[in-house]
Amino acid sequence: MAKLETMFDVRGKSVIVTGGASGIGRAYAEILAEHGAKVCIFDIDPEGLDRTVAEIGGDTWGQAVDVGDRPAMAAAFDAVAERHGGIDTVFANAGIDPGPGFMTVEGERFADGEIENIPDDQWDRGIEINLTSVYTTVKNAVRHMKPGKGGEIIVTSSIAGLINESIVGTSYMPAKAAVNHFVRHMAMELGAYGIRVNAILPGPFITNIAGGRLRNKADRAAFEAQSLIGRIGDVEDIKGLALLLSSPAGAYFTGSLIVIDGGALNRLT
Ligand SMILES: NC(=O)c1ccc[n+]([C@@H]2O[C@H](COP(=O)([O-])OP(=O)(O)OC[C@H]3O[C@@H](n4cnc5c(N)ncnc54)[C@H](O)[C@@H]3O)[C@@H](O)[C@H]2O)c1
User: CB of 25 closer than 6 A to ligand 1?
Assistant: First the structure.
């Protein structure tokens, strides 16, 4: 029988986490670094990045990159491959709530979020960061993994790719739904190269997304009411899944969309 430490061994792995200076991505970086991986965080927020890298310590380092900037992403991946001697595990995690939804958390209509009022650049940025950047991240990961011994790609999607949310910016739901389909398609294409591709679909977690609104009482209560276990997610809750999918214990997962939501989807569908 495999020992626990062998099953979940990520020591020495070369790991990239996009959007790893905060929230869910930071949790991925922490758990992998704590268990001996070499982690490079990509983030658009240079101060948050420096702070996070210093707090995590170990072999962790960072690059200030906008995941929407294709040449910068290619260069950042090359820099990791050069410094780590390859790339084993990539978390395509960076994402944004593109703007207000058409309802408020109190259940009122919100004109700014209604379709005819959405600024086109808000839609475009939502699709660019929540969908196109996943394509860019996977493309660069594969460029480095194919000539090597394969690898794992883990995409942070959302339960909003399975259901609609009236209080989240409109482009978020179609972007995450497309991400889910893309993950399954990539798993089909890349399995032959020993590259596993999976998606984590969180329900509500307390992070800095949407200005950290889940820390507000009303927003928090609305989302807590969806949970079957009476609370919303803490980023600590996601670490076990991240470790599973990036270690030998997760070797048979590919093309999986794994929901982690305290049961919210059960109530919502
Ligand atoms: N928090 C939730 O309730 C929740 C639920 C479902 C899915 N998600 C998904 O989880 C992922 C992480 O979000 P989070 O909740 O941890 O949010 P967060 O805001 O706490 O963290 C996101 C990080 O991504 C970085 N980032 C944003 N735009 C970027 C860009 N263009 N380039 C590089 N970095 C960028 C931010 O600076 C930040 O450090 C996202 O894909 C989000 O859609 C979150």
Answer: yes
- Could you list the active site residues? 158, 172, 176
Closest by CA position to 233, among listed 127, 179, 180, 156: 156
CA 216 to chain centre: 23
Q: What is the CA radius of gyration of the chain?
A: 18
Residue whose C-alpha is closest to residue 23's, from 43, 50, 2, 6 = 43
- Domain spanning 4-268: CATH 3.40.50.720: yes
The residue ranges of the chain whose pLDDT is under 50 are none
Structural domain boundaries of the chain? 4-268
Q: Tell me: the pLDDT tens digits for 217-252?
A: 888 998 899 999 999 999 999 999 999 999 999 999
Candidate from 96, 129, 154, 265 with most ligand 1 atoms within 8 A of CB, to mutate: 96
